[in-house]
Design the sequence.
DNA sequence: TTTAACTGTTCAACTACTTAACTATTAACG
DNA sequence: CGTTAATAGTTAAGTAGTTGAACAGTTAAA
């Protein structure tokens, strides 16, 4: 691959990945509506799948400082979506779980996103979709390694 | 494709695309440093490539309200990165252009991101990279259509 | 010429994030 | 055992980015 080729590839990669990122987030936001922000939805999603988790865990997964998690969980707690429970054995630890309301809202939002993504991937054929997911999974793997340096 | 298949595909798609989005943004942020935020960098990028543009144009491209653009451009103007120039023919319009400092900072940040992305895509073979870009371009195209509804 | 449409700004309110200092608790080690 | 380290989470001040609604000024349309 010659020098201008790689520069051109990198250029296209940057431009189009940024564009896709912005547009996808915007679509999801429109679909979820005003009950939940994107970040709050993905927080509910994580807690739901983990059953329960800690602030430190969320901070690592979302790659933000713990104080950012405290603030977000407080906002969600004020809306009645999550609960804080202190660990009896290690009194430093606080477990986060979904309330009934939080779970309901999560399921509703998840359904909406499923419909959105399904209608979206229906615009492509099977081979293409497999390729999309393969692409994302490969990128995700290498990004995880790069982050861990 | 049976029903559980498509549900599973959608699940994987949502999870992995969110993960990639977060990690990529985080890497870029680390690379750019504290001089520029991701959004400010991509705003510089857009203005640089367009030569000059308007607030309305940016609002449409980034899919945010015009007041959000006013606020961001003001922050960048305070840092001496962009200029506002009123159109002489249509006094409603304000043209945004990069200052010398803005352009320098953009070029520097762009170099950093190029090195990052290049080292990143060097971890894959040519066929894979072509596939990545193809994937993003297909997604971008359909996302644009979906947004326009 | 009045009315409508458009461009951009201001303001209040909100989400999200960082840094730094802090509390409370547990673990480590001499 | 007791002092010191590390760990989990919170608080507070400051910044970035966003929305919605009201607004000023300008241009286009009726």
Sequence:
């Amino acid at each position: 691959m010659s020098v201008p080729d790689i520069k051109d590839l990198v250029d296209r990669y940057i431009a189009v990945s940024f564009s896709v990122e912005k547009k996808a987030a915007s679509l999801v936001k429109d679909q979820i509506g005003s009950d939940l922000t994107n970040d709050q939805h993905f927080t509910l999603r994580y807690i739901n799948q983990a059953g329960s988790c800690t602030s430190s865990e969320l901070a690592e997964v979302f790659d933000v400082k713990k104080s950012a998690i405290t603030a977000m969980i407080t906002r969600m707690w004020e809306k009645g979506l999550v609960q804080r429970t202190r660990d009896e054995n290690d009194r430093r630890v606080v477990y986060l779980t979904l309330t009934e309301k939080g779970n309901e809202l999560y399921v509703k939002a998840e359904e909406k996103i499923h419909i959105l993504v399904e209608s979206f991937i229906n615009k492509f054929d099977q081979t293409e979709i497999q390729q999309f997911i393969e692409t994302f999974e490969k990128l995700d793997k290498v990004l995880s390694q790069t982050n861990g340096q």
Notes: Residues 3-32 of chain A form the longest helix (30 residues). The longest strand of chain A covers residues 82-86. Strands of chain A lie at 82-86, 94-98.
